[in-house]
Amino acid sequence: MKKIGFGSTKIVDDFSGEIIGLCDFKLEDTVYLSLFMIDGKLQSKGLCGEIYRAFEQMFKRENAHFVRIDVVDNYSGNSLAFWKKQGFESQGRTELVWKGKLSEALIMKKTI
């Protein structure tokens, strides 16, 4: 991903030093957020939204105006509700290929 302009960031707990998540994104006017993953035991506690908002503030400081994420939504327990809660809106559908597997996803975008 680095070859095509994506950055990868480890999300680390300040107290324990433990890696609690990962984030991959391409910083442009429209940031493409390709991965935002937080340890499952920390989900549904408000921390994921707090961490995402910190990334969004960083994107703003770098003069980005929008964030796009593609959400695979064809399974129970998907993250669609989380992204809607963060203010993202549907912009259509796309197909993603990951390790040879084709998945349909909802394109979501937010103005920041």
Set out the fold topology.
Blueprint: E1 6-12, E2 19-26, E3 30-38, H1 47-61, E4 66-71, H2 80-85, E5 89-98, E6 101-111
Parallel strand pairs: 3-4
Antiparallel strand pairs: 1-2, 2-3, 4-6, 5-6
Task: Summarize this structure as a short list of keywords or feature phrases.
112 residues; 19% helix; globular; Aminopeptidase; alpha+beta
Brief synopsis:
The chain has 112 residues and is of the alpha+beta class.
Task: Describe the fold and architecture.
By secondary structure, this protein is an alpha+beta fold. It has one domain: 3-Layer(aba) Sandwich (Aminopeptidase), CATH 3.40.630.30. Helices cover about 20% and strands about 45% of the residues. The chain has a six-stranded mixed β-sheet. The longest helix is centred in the middle third of the chain and has 15 residues. The protein starts with 5 loop residues before the first strand and ends with a strand. About 10% of the residues are buried. The mean pLDDT is about 90.
